[in-house]
Amino acid sequence: MSINLLPEQAKKNLQFEELNWRVMFFGEMFFLLLLFLSLLMFGQELFGQWKVRELNQRIANLSNVSEVKEITKFQGQLRLFKNDIERMNRIQEEQLRAFGAIKDLIALIPPVIQLTTLSVDIQAQKIVFSGMAPTRSQLLLLRDKIQKESSGYGDINFPLANLLRETDIPFTFSLTIISKAKQ
């Protein structure tokens, strides 16, 4: 059993530092995971291109009419490989866009505001996060920053229930990631 004799402010600072460390740690882990997935997809794309080249070469080598069925089979395989590569590229683009939006969002959060949860739905391109703000003015400042300084978000949902208290305010935001093509 341990007794914590630190002053209240020092306890809060210690908790805040621990939370900041966790956010940074999980952010770095998330970045490493995305990097690993990107490298994996890149490797799959190279393999697919190699396979397509191999199949194209085999098709070019076929010259007899009796081998038309085999040519058709190879062309079908080529289409399947092409579709797989396109699908992997779309997934990779969605993940990278979501990661960039999260990175930009975290940069907008002032140090006095604690982020407690962060949820990302890559398919729906939606981010939901919650936390604790020391004052109402700090929370409104965060809302204004997100609305004014970040053009990468749309459909920003800031419930009025977030403003009921004046201090130690638990809050929740939800927003949609806007793709570069829509901007």
Secondary-structure topology with pairs:
Blueprint: H1 8-61, H2 68-108, E1 114-121, E2 126-135, H3 136-149, E3 153-157, E4 167-177
Antiparallel strand pairs: 1-2, 2-4, 3-4
Helix pairs in contact: 1-2
Summed up, what is this model?
The chain is α+β, with helices and mostly antiparallel strands. It has helices at 8-61, 68-108, 136-149, and strands at 114-121, 126-135, 153-157, 167-177.
Task: Explain this structure.
The protein has 183 residues and is α+β, with helices and mostly antiparallel strands. The chain has three helices and four strands, in the order ααββαββ. It has a four-stranded antiparallel beta sheet. β1 and β2 form a beta hairpin. α1 runs antiparallel to α2. The termini are far apart. The mean pLDDT is 83.
What gyration radius follows from the Cα positions, in whole Å?
25 Å
- Identify the overall geometry: elongated
Q: Major beta sheet, specifics?
A: 4 strands, antiparallel
Total E-strand runs? 4
- Strands side by side in the biggest sheet: 1-2-4-3
The run of helices and strands is HHEEHEE
**Sheet/helix structural class:** alpha+beta
Protein traits:
3 helices; alpha+beta; 183 residues; elongated; 60% helix; four-stranded antiparallel β-sheet
